[in-house]
Every structure is written in structure tokens, then in C-alpha cells.
Structure prediction request, 407 residues.
Amino acid sequence: MNLHSIRKHFPALERELHGRNVIYLDGPAGTQVPKEVISSISDYYRYSNANTHGQFASSQETDRIMESARNKVATFINAPDANCISFGQNMTTLNFSLSKALVRDMNPGDEILITQLDHEANRGPWLNLEERGIIIKEVSLKPEGVLDYEDLERKLSERTKLVCIGYASNMIGTVNDVKYVRSLTRDRNIRMLIDAVHFAPHMAIDVQALDCDFLLCSAYKFYGPHVGILYCKPGLLNTLQTDRLRTQSADAPYRIETGTLNHAAIAGVEAAIKFISRLGEGKTLRDKITSAMQTIHRHEMDLAAILYDGLQQIKGCTIYGPGMESGLRTPTLGFSIKGITPEKVCYELAKQAIYAWDGHFYAIRAAEVLDLMKTGGVTRMGIVAYNTKEEINRTVKVMEKIASDSR
Ligand SMILES: Cc1ncc(COP(=O)(O)O)c(C=O)c1O
Prediction:
């Protein structure tokens, strides 16, 4: 991977503080955006700004842009066709819409499984259904930051209608065994929903291999703009009782898309996927995407190993979630340093031009279960495609100094 040329695509990486380039380790909260994405958004406004389905050129261009973006997203997650892809404001809003639709086909006493590791966006919409008599069961998180799969299996029952699980944790980087969960739910005829928001920038997604019913992600986590994406298995969305206006199309993928979408941002989603695909090789767009994701993953995990080792050497540092050798994590490290709050760590890092996040990042249930709330959550450093070895080495040095100054 030619990191030097990749970095040139990201104008934000030119930002400096006291003559030093800023180091962006805030990727899990949203990556920086390449200039191709920025241009496609501004080009949309410059040339094609219109509403859809009109008789004139800019409207027809908008239709083509939307269709093309849907096709690219379908290829990005290996969906069988573009009608499986719906767009929305963000993942949270789409998941609320989905939960409101699904409950209309449920009866009081039906059950939904959620997990303690998930972001609230994949808990809150389901927990709200308790007021409709739906029983929400929560799969336990073990102290080592991994879901308790025996607990999950125990909690499945004849009344379970849906399992909602994250693909990877945005707080501590754990990758969940969604294949195993699918094997448990398939035989029992239980639907499965995957929140792939944190996973999507790090590894290729294949919804057909996963055999999930629903998968959600958000383009701003993979070098794109703020657009939510919902995949529904072919034919499934058309059976759901979504909230929609009578003037709105009742067919997939539009059936859950309310109001006018953010066409410019959706043009940017296509540009983000094209940008990723150019980092890979192969004949088809899908080949290029999977090859690019492998290259990105290798690069990210090499850097994560350096960061993990460096942090581990620091006295009083605890890194949460599976170790590097497990192969069960993303390059996102959540950690704490004894005697100094994550907020103070991030404040000190920012003074040294290193941008990282502190807190629970809405994975608040996991922070509660791991007993991290009283100390302000964790410090989170997330590595993405544009980070360099030099940045990680410098981050480790700065962290050593912050930790030693706090003793
Ligand atoms: C794992 C995970 N799920 C869901 C969300 C919510 O996504 P959105 O901001 O698109 O609603 C986030 C955002 O950080 C996330 O990291």
C-alpha cells in the first residue's frame, strides 16, 4: 500500500498544530474524507442539483446518481441487487424506522435479543418496543470484552423473533462471531440484524455469506459523508409495514426512505467506495473492493500491533477486549491508564496534535458492565488506512510521557 500517495488524497491530513501534522486516531467516530468524495458532493450541487423523477436533465442526472450509488453500495457489501439497499439520515434513524416496522408484525410476549456490547443505536430502538409488550433480552458481555455465546444460546426461545448484534465493537474493537450466531438462528427461523457500522471500514462485508436479514452501516465511517445504509434481504422490505406517506413508493428500496434524501451526500458515498476500490486489484469492482479491504486490514493490524505493544508496556495501562493474537478484533484500542482520566489523556494528546476520543461512544452498556463509567469510560485510538507507522510510534512516546507525568 503506497501510503504516501493515499495520504495525498485527504486534505484534512495537511492540518498542523505548532508546525506538526495532526495525527487522526478518531477514525471510529468518523474518518477523514478524500478529495474525490468532496468533489463529487460539490459537483452534484454545481451541476445536477434537483429532486428525483422529473422530465428535465438535472433531475434525470439525480436519478442516475442515486441508482449508481445504490449499485456501488450493493457491491460493497455483496448484496445480490441494488433494491436491497436503502438510504437514510444515519444508521440510528434507519434502525428506529426498522424497529417501528417490525413490531407491527409481532405480538406481546415475542422476544428480541440484543447485546451488552452493542452501541445504543442497536439497543435503544429495540428496548423502546418493551412499551408494546415485546420482551427484550440482553446477551451478557464477559469481563474479557467478548460476548457470552452460551448465554446467547440459552436466551433463544420459541418466542425469539430477532437477534440484533454488532459485527464489531466501536469501543473496544471486539469482532463478534456473527457466523456462529447465524448458525443458531437459522435453524430456529429467527431473523438476524447486524450492525456493521464499526466493522465496515476495516474488513470486507459479504451479506450473502452472512445470510443476515438486515445489515446497517454508515458511510462516514468508511471515508464517505454522513449517510446511513440499510440492507434488507431480497423481498423482505416489501413485506414490512414501514411508516410512509401514501405518495411514497411502496416498493423496495424506497419503502423505508421517507422524504427527500441527501442526494449530494449519496453521490459522495459512491465516490468513497470507488476510492476504496482503487486501493485494490482485480477484474470486477467486487474483486477490487475485497482486495482493497484485505490490504487496508493488513496495514491497520500491523500498526495496531505496534500500538498495542507500546501501550501494554506502559505501567498501569489496561487494554480492553481480545488480544492482537486472537484475530478477533479491529484496529480500535480502548484502554485506561491508572490515575488519569480518559478525558485528561485526550486533552494532553490534543495538545500534542494527536486527536483521540474519550468516553463510552454510546456503547454505554458495555462501559457500565466493564465498570468503566465511574472513571469516564476509556481512551479510544482507532487506526484507519491513512495512519502511518511514524504516527503510531510518536503516539506511543507521547502516551509514555502522559502516563509518567501522571504518576
Ligand atoms: C457500532 C456503531 N453502531 C451504530 C452507530 C450509529 O451510527 P450513526 O451515527 O450512523 O447513527 C455507531 C456510531 O458511532 C457505531 O459506532
Summary: Residues 90-92, 119, 121-122, 166, 170, 195, 197-198, 218, 228 surround pyridoxal-5'-phosphate (CB under 6 Å).
